[in-house]
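new request in #modeling-help
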Amino acid sequence: MLFNSFDFAIFLPLVFSLYWLLGAKRIAAQNLLLLVASYIFYGTWDWRFLILILVSSVADFAIGKFMHESSSENYRKKLLWLSLFLNLGLLGFFKYFNFFIDTFANTFSFFGVAMDETRLNILLPVGISFYTFQTLSYTIDIYRRKINACNDPVAFFAYVSFFPQLVAGPIERAKNLLPQFIKERTFNYEKAVDGVRQIIWGLFKKVVIADNCSKAVNIIFTNYQYEDSLTLCLGAFLFLFQVYCDFSGYSDIAIGLGRLFGFHLRKNFDFPFFSRDLPEFWKKWHISLTSWFVDYIYIPLGGGRNGLNSKIRNVLIIFLVSGFWHGANWTFIFWGAFCGLAQVPYLLLGRNGRYDSYIAHGRYFPNFTEILQILGIIAFMSVSMILFRSPNITVAWSYLNGIFRFDFSSSIFAHYNSVLLIAGLLVWEWMFRSKEHGLEVSHLKARIRWGIYAIFVWLILFNFGINQEYIYFQF
Amino acid sequence: MKKFIQKVTIAFILLICFLISNFIINNHFINNQKTEINSKVLIMGGSHIKSGLDPKFIENSKNIAFPGETYFDTFHKLKYLVQKSKNSISTVICGFGHNNICGLNDDKYVKEAMSIEYLERIYPIIPYKTLKHFDVNKKGYLKTIIRKMCLYPKTSHEAFIGNGFNGRKPALELSKVNERIKHHYYAQDTVRPVSERDIQYLDSLVSFTAKQNINLVVVNIPQHKEYYSAVPAPIKKRYQKIESRLKENNVRILDLLKLDLEDSEYSNHDHLSNKGAAIVSSIVSDSLNQWGL
């Protein structure tokens, strides 16, 4: 069930009404309702996916409980390894099995040894990378004694499968989200209204911008051999914004939905293109995943504590892992390496992307240097997106070669509408860069607010055509 | 909570009122739109005839074919035009190729991406009460109605007519024959069954034109010999049966399927180039003259 579908338009009001009709005092009943609703939501893709999420939930609930009750460090460590083995094992099997088989076969054939390739026809369960990381954070945090084990199985199962963020994040930490399932949730008018605004903003980015860009991107990437250099550049640029609007749009809808049910979900994108350098960009892009890698990989590896060399090594590791997390393909690993290597100069210069305030704070317009910084980030990320979109390294390489042919034709003008939409988006986001999301208009007069809502809803309906899946569902 | 529900309900009611009022206005426009079809000869069908018959070679004709058009569409389109054009249409030239009866046509109203494109064309001419009897993407239909009729008043709803003859450049790539054949006749390596709905609507087209005293001429636009030989046997067999039935019903058939053309006269295996279209259009024109149409 997609957020941008009629099914969801029926599902949401139904669950919302039942949820609040139960009353805020009946937490257990509300949790049970959320659990059932989430399983229905997830089961609409394929009911078999439910088996996996159930296995993962049962295992981590039990492991967490045993770990919490045990005082033996050795036993606790074994339980942690069991959790890692189970969760990463499931993820590895469903997402990476065929990739490893292919890689082994190719490596052996390179050395002249023919291998009988046994590929499995495995269906990748939607959102497995997201909820696996969410359950892992639970057991790791219990092991680190940062949180206590949950005693309420319904609350825990609902936390793992919470439908707004189940299939594409934000990846929530048990420390933040799980306590919200235990305590009473009250309906807050202001938060609910802002939640609806954020849902509209998310739908706008997905339906109006990402889906429009996808049409042009599909044409350009399918016919990349025949396109001129400028059109190829445009293809990469449009794909960057397709990914951004698709994924950040999903996150906005998830956060908005969470608010409707009295939950607070963490911010996942913070107007990333308005950054002064790449380290700042990565602090604003897919925040929940970046911070997960920092907490559970970068810091345990030593972070920046053991000198510059080990810091560079650790940063490269998390970018490589991040690339691999995105998909079982060498293109994603190269993408991770490319983005990781681009961080090295900043590490050498001691730039960590931490700034006291957002870009052009207190000013309406960016200065010349800031414009160059923004354009530089967009250009770099557009190039990286060629790896992200290409089916293999050979295609990515020929696409890049095509850009450096330096031939130009007028075919670029065929996609002007997508470029105009992105220009409009950037201007709008610039105005709201200090806010929580792009439709936080509570400070405006009621008439203006309602006028803005009307325009956005109209644009969403106008572009409401084919149900396009979210790109990040495949990850 | 009460305030929130009140506001959401008001917003929802306002939105529904807005959508309904636009729907009413657009419905009025559809019922009263003046369609300008002044030609006596109409060329109808899918992309083969759209790029295969140039109306400048055929006297008083207009090519209103649309890529991918099925007999289901053509029947409703003609019915609509006959009502609007005050009986000025005397002859309809309709495409008749193997692809016109292939099962791919059934997917056109079912599969998400395709169905939106097709429903956007035909919503003014095929009412829901007709569509609902077939396997149709119903949610897609609702989306189409919202997008095309409920968002703003639109005076013209005639996208279904098409925008005339579409001359193509010669671009035949012999290696792509399987791609074309697979697209039309196969689903996951097995031959698709024919579209019974379209065969039924071809019959409806025959009886409708007869009733309206319109001369129906069916033309099979030439196919490249490689394409023709690769068309699956069950499709060919059924096609021949339909052809015989059309003959029994005194429908004029201009069989140009195996016309010997050069490669440059094709745009691909099943579409003609400008050069090919000129040759075929002249043949069709001569035949119409012979028949006194």
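bot summary: Chain B touches chain A through 17 residues (CB under 8 Å).
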